[in-house]
Amino acid sequence: MTRLLAALSLLALACGPTPAPKARPERLVAARRAPDLQAMNTDDASARPDPHSLARPDQVRVTHVGLRLRVDPTTRSLGGEALLQLDRVDPRAPLRLDTRGLTIVEVAAAEGDLERGESGAPVLALREAPISWAATTHRLEAEDPQLGRALVIDLPDAATLVRVRYEAAPEASGLQWLEPAQTAGRQHPFLYSQSQAIHGRTWIPCQDSPGARVTYDARVEVPAPLVAVMAAELLDGETPQADGDARVFRFAMPQRVPAYLIALAVGDLARAPLGERTAVWADPAVVAAAAHEFADLERMVAAAEALYGPYAWGRYDLLVLPPAFPFGGMENPRMTFATPTILAGDRSLVSLVAHELAHSWSGNLVTNATWSDLWLNEGFTVYFERRIVEALYGPARAAMEAELGLQDLERELVEDLAERPGDQRLRMDLAGRDPDANFTAVPYEKGALLLTALERAYGREVFDAVLRAWFTAHRFGAVTTADFEAHVTRALRDAPLLPGATAPSLSAWLDGAGLPADAPRSPTSAFAQVDTEVAALLDDARPAAALRTGGWTPHHWLHFLRALPRTVSLDALAQLDDAFHLTQSANAEVLTEWLTIAARRGYAPAMPRLEAFLVEVGRRKFLVPLYRALLTTPEGAARAQAIYARARPGYHAISRETIDALLAGAAEDDPPAPDR
Ligand code: BES
Ligand code: ZN
């Protein structure tokens, strides 16, 4: 039914007037464009393997991408050539690529093959032997507002290579261009990409489906003294080839990855080695603090390997981005991109790194086939993250993090998802919906809880073997929820349940709303002790300074702040602030929890810090509760609008879209949005 609807809406698009191309006119002059007739959508949407991609890798599959890019953060330009190697599954079919906002300058085809580069990796952009290109016809189909425009390229009989010359739009949603003032060093502009879920197509013409993998290589030219990094192997060590005022960086990615894991950043970057195969990259002003924060990285990789098998990607580096980054982290292979808001100074927020590292197995090695199966990436990863945290920092910390995660999920189920039972399922149907707009705790925390439930029913030893077999069976492959059901059912068929345990009902977990009644909890004595202090403050009116908080970690504080009632008095807030300096907290999670309460209650002394934080930090997870809290009072709503007017230009497109909708909803006099 959904497919039928999708097909009908595409048909309507195809029959409607051809939308004016977004591209700048002077660039179009050079483009070879087929007649208008061909701008119609001729493909069969119901046959596409992924509802969020217009490509047909089942007909012609891109197997390798060679990028030759020029990137200038000062002029916000990124463009050049994408060379594609093809597997012509159906020799009569054209090549279909995803694009969004790209200006296509020229398309050519050729016969030929990859070369082996110096490190043995397959290369196309970096190959030495010349290629005889011949122009070929192409057309851009009608624009779908979410998916963009299919670039359809006619292929001569023997063609196995295609070259697309193109430019990205300055406002490409997969790129964020930052002013020098938005970086720690404040001297140089910065660019980074964020391609998950469907933004890769805004800076590379590609088959932008998580089920389609490519190897790639790249030659990236940037103005001196900037540095380019990619989620790939850097071929020239730290001394790039110089070319006048430009610097050239060369990369190869010999492991096959989906397009959403191709990543690039350009800026003033320094590198600090951490271990044999780990290092951190960051603004020179931040790199020492980052190296201190992530000192456990090498041990984390070892702990992950001990659980689920050898790390498959060579190096594991971290890139600390400027604070505008809309996510906490992004698991780009070989180089996780991370927010600087995890630099708490005390390593208390490094579970985020454990999370992105865990994706090296769940997500990058074994990938959700479509975004509807996101829980197979994120739920597995949260479970695995907590196992790594447990191995490094002990079960008490892992249990606190699990409990805080469960609190997030329960709050979201009640406050945001109560009317949307379909979005409470692990097996989602996102066809026709924007994957960014459906970012909830369900695939993360409910997914992790399902794996915890299985672990507790059959025992760790048995269930770890089931997961290891899953990663082995689907290495470098794509998986669906049906694959998971089949694997688990087969693998656990003859496994005995632990004494007193019952088998979790897979269908209740995967297709039911809410949480099954037997969902596992991780009670912690640490939080019971915190609850005692909350009661002392509220019920016995014990002065805040007399609370027994000795030895509390930021996790204890998070639970403490969450346990305060919404009616907490301004006097209690002032006492807490005096005693514990919460408005000055260096821990962004604790600070956000505190500022959320302060915004809701109108606690004036915290307002300057709140404003500074919202202007500096673009991480959506923090922005949403803070703006929502402001919107609960008329004065707060006015403050939110004023702050947003200042902050919005510095936010990433993904955060802008979310906060635009939040504030527009408030302006329409909707009831105040809940907390998360
Ligand atoms: N892969 C995600 C980020 C993502 C998900 C980007 C979906 C676009 C679409 C990343 O691994 C992630 O989950 N990040 C979390 C951190 C985490 C510790 C839960 C984040 O950014 O908050
Ligand atoms: Zn994740």
Secondary-structure topology with pairs:
Blueprint: H1 2-15, H2 25-30, E1 61-72, E2 77-87, E3 95-99, E4 103-110, E5 115-116, E6 122-123, E7 134-135, E8 138-140, E9 149-153, E10 161-167, E11 175-178, E12 190-193, E13 213-223, E14 227-230, E15 233-234, E16 241-243, E17 246-258, E18 264-267, E19 270-273, E20 278-282, H3 287-293, H4 297-308, E21 316-320, E22 329-330, E23 335-338, H5 351-358, E24 366-368, H6 374-393, H7 395-415, H8 441-458, H9 460-473, E25 477-479, H10 481-492, H11 506-511, H12 525-539, H13 554-563, H14 570-580, H15 588-601, H16 607-616, H17 620-630, H18 634-647, H19 653-667
Parallel strand pairs: 1-13, 20-21, 21-23, 24-25
Antiparallel strand pairs: 1-2, 2-10, 3-9, 4-7, 4-10, 5-6, 8-9, 11-12, 12-18, 13-17, 14-18, 15-17, 16-17, 19-20, 22-23
The protein binds ligand BES and zinc ion.
Ligand BES is lined by residues 196-197, 327-331, 352, 355-356, 359, 378, 444, 621.
Q: Explain this structure to me?
A:
By secondary structure, the protein is an alpha+beta fold. It has 19 helices and 25 strands. Strand 8 and strand 9 (149-153) form a beta hairpin. The longest helix has 21 residues, at 395-415. The relative contact order is 0.08. Bound molecules: ligand BES and zinc ion (ZN). Residues 355, 359, 378, 381 line the site of zinc ion.
Q: How helix-rich are the residues, as a percent range? A: 25-40%
Radius of gyration, whole Å: 25 Å
Strand content: 15-25%
Shape type: globular
Characterize this entry briefly.
The protein is α+β, with helices and mostly antiparallel strands. The protein is 35% helix and 19% strand.
